[in-house]
Amino acid sequence: MRCHEVDYKIIGEALQVVEVELDPGEKVIAEAGMMNYMEDGISFETRMGDGSNPDQGLMGKLFSAGKRMITGESLFMTHFGNEGEGKRKVAFAAPYPGSIVALNLAEHGERVICQKDAFLCAALGTKVDVTFSRKLGAGFFGGEGFILQSLEGDGMAFMQAGGTVVRKELNNETLRVDTGCLVGFTDGIDYSIEMVKGLKSMFFGGEGLWLATLKGTGTVWIQSLPFSRLADRVIAASPALGGAERGED
Predict the structure, then answer these.
(1) pTM surpassing 0.85?
(2) Alpha carbon distance 21, 10 (integer Å)
(3) Residue 121 lies in domain
(4) What contacts 225, CB < 8 A, 6 or more positions away?
């Protein structure tokens, strides 16, 4: 799937911004509300769909938008294009503290699977679709790990992640990850969600009842601080948000 060629620079260490440089006529797509700043000459338009298939009819666009709506994502994406005469820049940032992962999809088999909230932006031509775990149990109990996104194409795409990102290379190996800590993985990885073994571990271990199990050969990206975990800690520590009030010494 042919994508526009875009140059980029990731700025910062812990609260990162990705600055994308567009030649005249080049475009990039992004989740609604992720734009940070843009130079004069950049125009933007909100559209239904990612624009990867310009010949797609209305029903096809509605079907794709419907799948995104089911997962809680916006029905629309924002398309940014350079309508100036020289190179112009537009930047995107995640809505929470963390890191940005740059993916050259051509180097990863032209397809990467990621958590439903991980997609940030990509070169126009990238297909952003919704996919689901193949095991039914994950749908009822797996929570964060059930609904996934696929990024397909031969250009650049960018994922957002909370905290520090750890990249693991599996060579016919197995890795178990907290479902919320998984950011994405390449197409050669088999993904499932399994229940934690042992009653004490399930109820008193503090790690949740379910783990994502990844098997095979390929790349896995893990985040150290998923937003859901950060939000839980903030709520627990704040009386105004329903957390326990701390006594004074």
Answers:
(1) no
(2) 11
(3) 7-163
(4) 97, 98, 162, 163, 164
CA distance 46 to 65: 13
Q: Say if residues 10 and 16 touch (Cβ distance below 8 Å).
A: yes
CA distance 69 to 63: 10
| pLDDT of the chain, 249 residues: tens digit per residue | 789 989 999 999 878 999 999 999 999 999 888 999 999 999 999 987 787 766 555 555 565 555 656 656 667 889 999 998 899 999 999 888 889 999 999 999 999 999 888 999 999 999 998 886 655 454 444 445 567 889 999 999 999 999 899 999 999 999 999 888 999 999 889 988 877 665 444 454 445 567 889 999 999 999 998 766 555 556 666 666 555 554 444
Residue that has been written with the tokens 């998923």 in this structure: 226
Domain containing residue 21: CATH number: 3.60.160.10
Kindly report the CA angle at 65 between 126 and 47, in degrees rounded to 5? 65
Number of domains in the chain: 1
